[in-house]
Amino acid sequence: MIVMDPPWQNASVDRMSHYGTMDLYDLFKIPIPHLLSKDGVVAVWITNRAKVQKVVVEKLFPAWGLTWVAHWFWLKVTTHGEPVLSLECGHRKPYEGILIGTRIPSNNTDMSTTTADLPNVDKECSSPHSVKKKLLVSVPSQHSRKPSIAQLLEKEFLASSEGNSNPDKEPRRLELFARNLEEGFVSWGNEPIRYQYCGRGHANGKLDIQDGLDIQDGLDVQDGFLVPAPRPIVD
Questions:
Q1: Of 208, 212, 210, nearest to 229 (Cα)?
Q2: Across 64-89, average pLDDT
Q3: Are 197 and 180 in contact (CB under 8 A)?
Q4: CB of 98 within 8 A of CB of 72?
């Protein structure tokens, strides 16, 4: 299983410098075919830009040897259950998408996919194959942090994988562009502990070795989250 939330180029993100972004086409350099098992699944968080959806489905997935099998949506709601923004808002939407792909069978030579009608909240998908849709609803936390979808992916795509000789064996999981550590995952990214929650039992202040973390670069706890320790000022 591979989950990724690429730092898509975005004018507001670039302007506010929340995090560094990358060109969409740099994703083609990631060796997904060498990282994914034969029965594996890849989930890519996307923005609501039509270009991003189109490139992922029509170019990136085929380049990685994947076929598009599902389009999920995460609807962000308030603690009262209302969308955080109006669904009719033209500038920003209260939802984000997840495109999911699985390996193309070795006997299938047709790697083409179309997005003539990408699935969205308002209209049905008319792709050449059956694309599963699912709506996830939750209250968002910090900026850009996504909810965990590992268990849903396992249940939907890995629970009855053909050729799985040991169904009780935990699947190998990789998160690319991770911004917090998740149990059972290998986390890779520039900021893998940016939103790492240590629990309410951790008081603000410096971490101790007993916390089981490598703190050679210095980490503090602030409101339950790991943060870089302030560097001393040297004259």
A1: 208
A2: 92
A3: yes
A4: yes
> What's the Rg (C-alpha) of the chain?
20
AA letter at 132: K
SS3 142: coil
Task: For Cα atoms 163, 170, 197, give the angle at the middle one, nearest 5 degrees.
Answer: 145
Residue with tokens 């909810």: 147
Q: Classify burial at 12, counting beta carbons within 10 Å of its beta carbon; exposed 0-12, middle 13-18, buried 19 or more.
A: exposed
Backbone CA torsion sign across 3, 13, 123, 85:
positive
pLDDT tens-place string over residues 138-172: 998 766 678 899 999 999 998 755 445 455 677 89
- Which pLDDT score is estimated for 150? 93
CB burial of residue 76 (10 Å; 0-12, 13-18, 19+): middle
The one-letter amino acid at 130 = S
Beta strands 132-138 and 66-76 are: parallel
Instruction: Give the residue carrying structure tokens 């994947």.
Output: 66
Q: Are strands 95-103 and 41-46 parallel, antiparallel or unpaired?
A: antiparallel
**Is the CB of residue 102 less than 8 Å from the CB of residue 69?**
yes
> What would the pLDDT profile of 181-230 be if each residue is shown by its tens digit?
888 999 998 877 776 765 544 444 444 444 444 444 555 555 555 555 55
